TrEMBL record:
Keyword Hydrolase: yes
Keywords recorded for this protein, A-Z: ATP-binding, Helicase, Hydrolase, Nucleotide-binding
Compositional bias of kind Low complexity: 681-695
Underlying gene: DQX1
Gene3D superfamilies: 1.20.120.1080, P-loop containing nucleotide triphosphate hydrolases (3.40.50.300)
SMART domains according to UniProt: HA2 (SM00847)
The protein's name: ATP-dependent RNA helicase DQX1 isoform X3
Region Disordered, annotated ranges: 1-21, 384-418, 677-701
Organism: Odocoileus virginianus
CDD domains according to UniProt: SF2_C_RHA
Positions of the Helicase-associated domain: 425-514
Composition skew (Polar residues), residue ranges: 384-415
Classification via InterPro entries: DEAD-box_helicase_OB_fold, HA2_WH, Helicase-assoc_dom, P-loop_NTPase
Length: 701
């Protein structure tokens, strides 16, 4: 079988005339000269030696599952998908297409760009990608790279695997919740009985191979030979620099002055530092005075989008590439031309506290970056021990599993299961939101919530807006909260600060986001208008697209809509009610009037974010007593982001009574329970008075 899959690529080398005669079997066009150049690079990758073995196992695996294990940098993420596409092509497209999952959207985008280039195909046609707010695929797409959470949502919506011939779960060692759930769902579905004869390829590094072999029942395993090249030579600097960005720039300039061959990779922990480093280097490299063109400085982070393509492009003859990035580069690209790494030894890690439902980013000591095995010299700005722990929100993923496998009593059949405390917290949150029935399966409301590509609390607020007649405003807010942050930086001057303050709304950050969006639309989505106010034009465009998708989804499932009424007093109250209906889990109280907020669900104190409109006003009034917040950031100065004032009466009215009863002991809980009793007594007296008046009226008649 394997010998039938490849014709051209198995030849020892093309002759000068071959490029004019050979035709790409995927689009029927002649191969370009660049294809042959990249083909030589592909053949030199360690994974190439395992090609025939992989194709044979993919064809003959009794269970339909193949496990691929290889060291980082061996080429498995770019080559395995192409071989799967050849496998599907050999079957005459009768068994569906190839879907490749990635744990990070940037990795899916970057790999799609690279693989399309290597296959000599057009991105968006035969090769495509699907990431949040962007679907670059078409009817002719045979090979699709996809963020694993999006694929999980697709499977939850269709209750199946669709017309996929091969499903590749890449970077399984990253242990994302979505990847683990996908593996659990596929294993429980008894692969031999799946429609379409689906093949599953699980790609990992050797560290997770034994666990995956045990989980999948010892499937055929392809081990990529280890590269026998030289190991990197680490050079540590004992003194910790006070300015990481300046130290990294200085290290790059020293390498350039020495004219050491090879490209440079710089690791910094945050996107802000990446941007500052690139800006500084771009100014300094031109004054090096070396012969030849100056180095080309390239930033690489999730906000770059398709600009990641520049990493693969050829530079002017002799020009060195300096790629400035963070740990996501380990899964987004690999360049054999890189021979020097400048590593800060730090990274921005996701951290969480389950009890407070808080998430944040914290600079921690980094793990040893996976790209080092194929590099030459490593310059460390700080010696470090390898450690990186990823924390994620599981409620949305658990609701997806409940929908896909209703009646399942084992939510922990994963690889292995996450912490039981995290799963119980997720189930508790879903129960508070009325998304589960008495049997622990999704309720009717939960099924509708799972249709939305939103966090459960945001989806609940959007559904509540149907009841409170503020759907138009809540659609805008949901899109703005889900897209990338709309503000790129603090104001640079007084004029810009004044323009931005004009967009603030007196009711708080949620209404301010709606006001920003509406002003953006009224400007005609003008980029210059955004730049004058320090707004992220790309993020606002994302929000506009996502809003349209959410509106289309609501129309498809026949949910009631409402006319725009933003700015009216009634709409103000209705919007607050919709928000509280979904976000009652995220409420805080200022107990002493100083702006120190105590979280309702835990005895944790936080400040308002510096970007909160309550703090950015020129003459701020007393901080609001009760606030609803979108996120709680865990950091040195814990802060609440996207904050709006609410009234405690509204919280008592809309939150489940057992939620208030289950709050930890505090003055706030006592106050709310007392308020609930008073409101109940008042309602009882009102009903009694109405009944008495009715009886009196009957007597008079």
């Amino acid at each position: 079988m394997a010998s039938q899959l490849l014709g051209l690529e198995e030849e020892s080398g093309p002759s000068p005339g071959e490029s004019e005669l050979a035709v790409n079997p995927f689009d029927g066009l002649p191969f370009s000269s660049r294809y042959y150049k990249l083909l030589e690079q592909r053949r030199s990758l360690p994974v190439w030696a395992a090609r025939f073995i992989f194709l044979e196992q993919l064809e003959s695996s009794p269970s339909g599952v193949v496990l691929v294990s290889g060291e980082p940098g061996c080429g498995k993420s770019t080559q395995i998908p192409q071989w799967c596409a050849e496998f599907v092509l050999a079957r005459g497209f009768q068994k569906g297409w190839v879907t490749v999952t990635q744990p990070y959207p940037l990795a899916a985008l970057s790999l799609a760009l690279r693989v399309a280039d290597e296959m000599d195909l057009t991105l968006g046609h035969e090769v495509g990608y699907s990431i949040p707010q962007e679907d670059c695929t078409g009817p002719d797409t045979l090979l699709r790279f996809c963020w694993d959470r999006l694929l999980l949502q697709e499977m939850a919506s269709t209750r199946g695997t669709g017309a996929r011939g091969v499903l590749v779960l890449d970077e399984a060692q990253e242990r994302s919740v979505a990847s683990d759930l996908l593996q659990g769902l596929l294993r429980d579905a008894r692969l031999g009985n799946l429609p379409g004869d689906l093949r599953v390829v699980v790609v990992t590094d050797p560290t997770l191979k034994p666990k995956l072999q045990d989980f999948w029942g010892n499937p055929p395993t392809v081990c990529v030979p280890r590269e026998t090249g030289r190991c990197p030579t680490p050079v540590y600097r004992d003194s910790l620099p006070t300015d990481r960005v300046e130290a990294a720039c200085q290290a790059v300039l020293e390498l350039c002055q020495k004219e050491a061959p090879g490209d440079v990779l710089v690791y910094l922990p945050s996107e802000e530092e990446i941007s500052l480093c690139c800006e500084s280097l771009s100014k300094k490299v031109g004054s090096l005075g070396n012969q030849g063109p100056p180095p080309r400085v390239l930033p690489l982070h999730p906000g770059c989008g398709r600009a990641v393509q520049a990493v693969y492009e050829d530079t002017e003859a002799g020009a060195r590439k300096v790629v400035v990035t963070h740990w996501l580069a380990d899964f987004s690209f690999s360049l054999p031309s890189i021979r020097h790494v400048i590593d800060s030894g730090l990274e921005l890690q996701s951290v969480s506290e389950r009890q407070v439902r808080g998430h944040g980013l914290k600079i921690e000591i980094a793990h040893s970056h996976l790209s080092w095995p194929w590099l030459g010299v490593v310059t460390g700005l700080q010696s470090s021990d390898p450690s990186r722990i990823s924390s994620v929100e599981t409620s949305q993923q658990v609701s997806g599993r409940r929908k896909t496998t209703p009646g399942s009593r084992d939510p922990t059949s994963l690889v292995p299961s996450p912490a039981p405390e995290a799963l119980m917290q997720a189930l508790e949150d879903l129960d508070y939101l009325a998304a589960l029935d008495d049997d622990g399966d999704l309720s009717d409301l939960g099924v509708i919530l799972s249709e939305f590509p939103l966090a459960p609390e945001l989806a609940k607020a959007l559904l509540a807006s149907c009841e409170f007649d503020c759907v138009d405003e809540m659609l805008t807010l949901a899109a703005m909260l889900t897209a990338a942050p709309g503000f790129t930086r603090p104001p640079l001057c007084a004029e810009e600060a004044a323009l931005r303050r004009a967009l603030e709304h007196v009711d708080g950050d949620h209404s301010s986001l709606i006001q920003v969006y509406e002003a953006f639309i009224q400007s005609g989505a003008d980029k210059a208008w955004c730049q004058a106010r320090g707004l992220n034009w790309a993020a606002l465009c994302q929000a506009h697209k996502l809003r349209g998708e959410l509106l289309e989804l609501m129309q498809r499932i026949e949910l009631p809509l409402s006319q725009p009424a933003f700015g009216s007093e009634q709409n103000r109250r209705d919007l607050q009610k919709a928000l509280v209906s979904g976000y009652f889990l995220k409420v805080a109280r200022d107990t002493d009037g100083t702006g120190n907020y105590l979280l309702l669900t835990h005895k944790h104190v936080a400040q308002l974010s510096p970007h909160c409109c309550y703090r950015s006003r020129r003459a701020p009034a007393r901080p609001p007593l009760w606030v609803l917040y979108h996120s709680f950031s865990i950091s040195k100065d814990n802060c609440l982001s996207i904050v709006s004032e609410i009234q405690p009466q509204m919280l008592v009215e809309l939150a489940p009574p057992y939620f208030l009863s289950n709050l930890p002991p505090s003055e706030s809980r006592d106050f709310l329970n007392q308020l609930r009793e008073e409101m109940t007594d008042s309602s009882t007296r009102s009903e009694s008075s109405s009944t008495q008046e009715l009886e009196n009226a009957c007597v008079l008649q």
